[in-house]
């Protein structure tokens, strides 16, 4: 065990010059710089412009868009919603996916079919899954209420999407459901990267399953968990369809997260202002950066995981 | 590889282990059925909605099984030339984007995992930060860019955008897998006379198969389900991908719910097939005991 | 040396791959400035008819004008965002189909009718639509089709509740709704969609039938006493009378209110052509009638109407091509056959005559010349309408404040002036 672990600890990396680096990284860099960075810079430009409702640029706004956004009365609620949405969805997704990944890594009859089934919520377009859940949650024609009524659990339908106390939990449930497959497969891959001889060694040493899990599996899964948390944070932050569609019939901004609020500012509100929406977009990125930085700091990733 | 959970110390847990070993032959598949049901049930609801007349989808009170069974939605969707075009676009775009991502991400991941160079952290940081911008807020810039290039309304625009947005994930996960391969494996290969590229493709890549499978699946699905960029960049009905095209089934004035769901279910199939083809490689790679 | 050669090969391969892909992509249109092609952005009304009509139209247009027509059909949900993207990048279409035009006119982006609409065509358009398409004395928003709203009621439910005829006053309306609601079995008296999808329409039709309006004599009257009374009445339907479906402020039209009526679970609803065609084709078990709206002020019923617009953007050299577009579009064979296919109402006097033979449309056609529209000729309405959609649901919720909602609207409108 110790031998194998030792070889897995920090390995010295070779060094290379900039020119060689550019050769290896060049194509990736060109695509990213060309296609992602350029529009991002354009977004910054938009956030400093005054725009007509039609999208026509009327002039420079200075920081007016940022001021207008940061002083909008709904911002506090929206940031709170975003925090709850991201926090709960990511935490639950990671925890549940760890269990699911363990299960999917076991050998058993029919495992292949289970794996195919788990991929389905991931493979389905998020817009469609959201639309589907919207119908299933419906007060009148939703199958969830239909089922609960039929079972006699409730006697009156539940307004899953219209009741302010229930809408966020309803959306979070869907968020976790659709995030789990991706995360679980990330962990399955991570689990399979752990050399079998480590487990063998541990078994010979007489370690219990729980000890093996805590001492071997979890530490060696750390890189995968790190990727899983960070990527899920980013994707859940920017997840649009679930909230847009499930919250689609509710008035106001009381259940919006930043990403849907941003869209409403641009096209579905009194402001109807793409400049202010761009400012909101920049704010959103900064918030994600902060959240990721806090997480990385919290987990001390550089010291322990730099490899 | 035997599962770690059965690995209990022989003396104390021998009997229990044997009992479990027998029981797990039944327990695990049954639990598997439960997991399958959990992840599939919304899509079973979707299937039943696709198999009823459109007007029954929003029936009050709802019924789980269709009152009238009909496969007409599936027939209409499959025989719809528009749908066939959308499917074609989605396939071309997702396959091409996935290929590009792998071609550019594998060398980059290998290199960043194996070498330190000036700007390495900046590069990795840049890759992550690009993921943080919501595509919704970038479409205006993307549209301008491709308009200037004369590529609006082309597959190329979608392929390049999908590729660029998904490099980060592939790069990240592959980087982790490359980094986990013991140095001695690589050194042995180099001593055997493999060049750096040969080492990468013949020795290293097979060891990262689980990561590669995950990266391919991820990229393919992301490209397959991309919506807002395709909506913005594609004009012609015939060039739209599925996600954009199937909007047509439910508009403000005419709702064909069963066709929408039939089309959506058909759209899931290619992804599941792709995954079924590469799924077995999720196991393997390093567990084969490469160190020995 | 050997090593770097191989490295070069990788890069070259990657570059080749992307170039190969570039060539495997579809041909992109050059859309050169000038008159060789025009870009036409159309809203998708239905899958069955919109693309079909416009593709055939494009072929005819190309034949008659010699100009290529690049068609882009966009669903209503994404249309605002897409048109904004085009304008933001300085690349508006030549023709845009939207439900608002005044802001574009105010930004000076559009041709007026004098520049692109043949005089005979303009004379044929129903005056009410010319008026709503006119901003600051010039006609910019050409109507593509129209619809009118009326009260739909379920005859079977009415009979079961012992109601002989459709209500004509608000008192009768409430009484009838209560009777239907009392039938039980999940049936509601009135299906009231006040969610963000299209709430301004529901508000408008009730306002208009109580002597109210959004704007009177060029002044905003959003918080007029009659408007406050109307919205109080609308709120009362759910909060005190309890004759509506659950939570009207969170109910959209398409997937909330309409399905209830289509399933025979609602006694009354405000409906229009597309609902009617759904009832006639998909939900044939619903035995429905159509009546003018009941009124709150004992005046003659007002018909609330909607028209969407075709507007044309000033771009270098496209004036003749745009003119040819309108000329062909408003030829009776084109405009009327499309409107018929989509189940909407005509926008031209000649269209009125051509539709008159359809008895099912009589109830609407008679009202069309006096149709009551929202103030789409005021750019400020483009924002007011959004605010109504987004916030009215909060005002009609049990704890909501109707008066404050309308006061805020009025303040917003006046501040915009």
Give the SSE layout:
The complex is a heterotrimer of chains A (307), B (292) and C (417).
Chain A: H1 2-8, E1 14-15, H2 18-47, E2 49-51, E3 57-60, H3 64-70, H4 75-105, H5 111-123, H6 126-137, H7 143-151, H8 164-192, H9 196-204, H10 209-237, H11 241-246, H12 258-267, H13 274-298, H14 301-305
Chain B: H1 10-50, H2 72-78, H3 81-114, E1 115-116, H4 120-132, H5 135-148, H6 155-180, H7 183-191, H8 196-207, H9 209-224, H10 228-233, H11 242-245, H12 257-278
Chain C: H1 2-24, E1 37-44, H2 50-65, E2 68-75, H3 76-88, E3 95-98, H4 102-106, H5 113-116, H6 119-124, H7 127-132, E4 134-135, E5 138-139, E6 142-148, E7 150-154, H8 155-160, H9 170-181, E8 188-190, H10 199-208, E9 215-216, E10 219-220, H11 225-239, H12 253-262, E11 266-271, H13 273-281, E12 288-291, E13 305-312, H14 319-329, H15 332-342, H16 349-355, H17 362-365, H18 379-395, H19 402-416
Parallel strand pairs in C: 1-2, 1-3, 8-11
Antiparallel strand pairs in C: 3-13, 4-5, 6-13, 7-11, 7-12, 9-10
Number of helices, counting only DSSP H or I runs of 4 residues or more of chain B: 12
Mean pLDDT of chain A: 88
Query: Number of domains in the coordinates of chain A?
Result: 1
Quaternary structure of the protein: heterotrimer
CATH architecture classification name of chain A: Orthogonal Bundle
Number of beta strands of chain A: 3
Query: How do the strands of the widest beta sheet of chain A line up side by side?
Result: 2-3
Broad CATH class of chain A: Mainly Alpha
Calculate the mean pLDDT score of chain B and round it.
Answer: 85
Give me the CATH fold name of chain A: MetI-like fold
* Envelope shape of chain B: flat
**Helical residues, percent of chain A:** over 70%
Question: Beta fraction of the residues of chain A?
Answer: under 5%
Find the count of extended strands of chain B (DSSP E, 2+ residues). Answer: 1
Euclidean distance between termini CA atoms of chain A: 19 Å
Contiguous low-pLDDT stretches of chain A (5 residues minimum) are: 1-11
Query: Would you list the SSEs of chain B in sequence order as H and E?
Result: HHHEHHHHHHHHH
State the helical fraction of chain B.
55-70%
Distinct helical segment count of chain A:
14
Structural class of chain A: mainly alpha
Strand content range of chain B: under 5%
């Amino acid at each position: 065990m110790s031998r194998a672990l030792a070889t897995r600890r920090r390995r010295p990396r070779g060094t290379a010059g900039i020119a060689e680096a550019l050769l290896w990284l060049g194509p990736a860099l060109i695509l990213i710089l060309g296609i992602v960075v350029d529009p991002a810079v354009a977004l910054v430009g938009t956030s400093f412009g005054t725009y007509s409702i039609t999208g026509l640029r009327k002039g420079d706004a200075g920081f007016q868009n940022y001021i207008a956004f940061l002083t909008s009365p709904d911002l506090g609620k929206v940031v709170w919603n975003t925090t709850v949405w991201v926090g709960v969805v990511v935490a639950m997704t990671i925890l549940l996916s760890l269990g699911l990944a363990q299960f999917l890594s076991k050998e058993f009859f029919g495992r292949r079919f289970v794996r195919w089934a788990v991929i389905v919520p991931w493979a389905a377009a998020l817009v469609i899954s959201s639309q589907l859940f919207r119908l299933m949650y419906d007060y009148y024609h939703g199958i969830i209420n239909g089922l609960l009524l039929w079972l006699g659990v409730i006697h009156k339908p539940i307004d899953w999407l219209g009741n302010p106390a229930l809408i966020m939990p309803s959306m979070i449930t869907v968020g976790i459901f659709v995030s789990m497959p991706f995360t679980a497969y990330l962990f399955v891959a991570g689990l399979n990267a752990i050399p079998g001889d480590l487990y063998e060694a541990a078994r010979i040493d007489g370690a219990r399953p729980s000890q093996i899990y805590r001492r071997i599996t979890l530490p060696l899964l750390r890189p995968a968990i790190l990727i899983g948390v960070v990527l899920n944070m980013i994707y859940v932050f920017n997840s649009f369809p679930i909230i847009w569609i499930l919250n689609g019939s509710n008035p106001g901004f009381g259940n919006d997260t930043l990403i849907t609020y941003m869209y409403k500012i641009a096209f579905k509100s009194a402001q109807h202002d793409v400049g202010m929406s761009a400012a909101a977009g920049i704010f959103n990125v900064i918030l994600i950066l902060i959240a990721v930085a806090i997480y990385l700091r919290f987990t001390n990733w550089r010291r322990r995981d730099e490899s | 590889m035997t599962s770690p959970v059965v690995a209990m110390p022989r003396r104390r847990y021998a009997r229990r282990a044997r009992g479990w070993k027998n029981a797990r032959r039944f327990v695990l598949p049954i639990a598997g059925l439960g997991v399958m049901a959990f992840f599939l049930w919304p899509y079973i609801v979707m299937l039943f909605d696709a198999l009823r007349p459109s007007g029954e989808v929003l029936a009050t009170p709802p019924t789980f099984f269709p009152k009238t069974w009909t496969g007409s939605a599936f027939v209409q969707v499959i025989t719809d030339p528009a749908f066939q075009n959308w499917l074609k676009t989605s396939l071309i775009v997702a396959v091409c984007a996935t290929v590009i991502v792998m071609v550019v991400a594998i060398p980059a991941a290998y290199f960043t995992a194996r070498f330190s160079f000036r700007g390495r952290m900046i590069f990795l940081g840049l890759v992550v930060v690009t993921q943080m911008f919501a595509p919704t807020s970038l479409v205006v810039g993307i549209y301008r860019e491709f308009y200037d290039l004369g590529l609006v309304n082309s597959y190329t625009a979608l392929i390049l955008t999908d590729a660029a947005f998904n490099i980060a994930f592939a790069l990240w996960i592959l980087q982790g897998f490359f980094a986990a391969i013991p140095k001695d494996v690589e050194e042995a290969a180099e001593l055997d006379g493999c060049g750096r590229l040969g080492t990468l493709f013949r020795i290293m890549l097979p060891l990262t198969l689980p990561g590669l499978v995950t990266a391919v699946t991820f990229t393919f699905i992301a490209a397959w389900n991309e919506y807002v960029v395709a909506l913005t960049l594609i004009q012609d009905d015939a060039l739209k991908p599925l996600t954009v095209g199937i909007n047509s089934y439910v508009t403000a004035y005419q709702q064909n719910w069963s066709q929408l769901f039939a089309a959506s279910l058909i759209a899931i199939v290619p992804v599941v097939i792709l995954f079924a083809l590469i799924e077995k490689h999720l196991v393997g790679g390093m567990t084969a005991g490469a160190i020995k | 040396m050997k090593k770097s050669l191989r490295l070069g090969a990788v890069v070259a391969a990657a570059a080749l791959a992307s170039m190969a892909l570039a060539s495997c992509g579809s041909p992109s249109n050059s859309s050169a400035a000038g008159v060789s092609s025009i870009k036409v952005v159309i809203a998708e009304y239905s899958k069955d008819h919109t693309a079909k009509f416009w593709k055939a139209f494009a072929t005819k247009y190309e034949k008659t004008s010699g100009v290529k027509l690049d068609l882009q059909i966009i669903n209503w949900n994404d249309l605002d965002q897409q048109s904004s993207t085009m304008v933001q990048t300085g690349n508006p279409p030549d023709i845009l189909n939207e439900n608002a035009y005044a802001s574009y006119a105010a930004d000076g982006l559009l041709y007026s009718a004098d520049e692109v609409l043949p005089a005979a065509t303009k004379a044929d358009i129903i005056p009410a639509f010319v008026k709503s398409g006119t901003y600051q004395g010039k006609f910019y928003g050409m109507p593509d089709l129209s619809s009118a709203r009326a009260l739909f009621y379920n005859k079977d439910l009415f009979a079961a509740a012992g109601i002989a005829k459709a209500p004509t006053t608000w008192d009768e309306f409430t009484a009838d709704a209560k009777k239907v609601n009392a039938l039980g079995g999940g049936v509601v008296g009135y299906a009231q969609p006040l969610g963000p999808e299209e709430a301004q329409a529901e508000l408008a039709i009730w306002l208009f039938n109580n002597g109210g309006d959004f704007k009177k004599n060029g002044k905003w009257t959003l918080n007029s006493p009659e408007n406050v009374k109307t919205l109080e009445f609308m709120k009362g339907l759910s909060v005190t009378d309890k004759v509506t479906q659950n939570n009207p402020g969170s109910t959209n039209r398409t997937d909330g209110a309409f399905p209830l009526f289509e399933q025979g679970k609602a006694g009354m609803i405000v409906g229009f052509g597309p609902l009617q065609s759904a009832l006639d084709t998909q939900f044939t078990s619903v035995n429905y009638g159509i009546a003018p709206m009941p009124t709150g002020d004992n005046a003659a019923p007002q018909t609330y109407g909607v028209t969407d617009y075709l507007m044309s953007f000033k771009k270098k050299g496209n004036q003749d091509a745009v003119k040819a577009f309108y000329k062909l579009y408003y030829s009776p064979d084109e405009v009327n056959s499309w409107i018929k296919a989509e189940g909407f109402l005509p926008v031209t006097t000649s269209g009125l005559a051509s539709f008159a033979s359809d008895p099912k449309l009589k109830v609407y056609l008679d009202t069309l010349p006096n149709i009551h529209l929202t103030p789409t000729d005021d750019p400020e309405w483009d924002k007011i309408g959004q605010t109504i959609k987004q916030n009215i649901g909060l005002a009609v919720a049990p704890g909501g404040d109707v008066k404050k909602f309308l006061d805020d609207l009025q303040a917003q409108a006046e501040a915009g002036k």
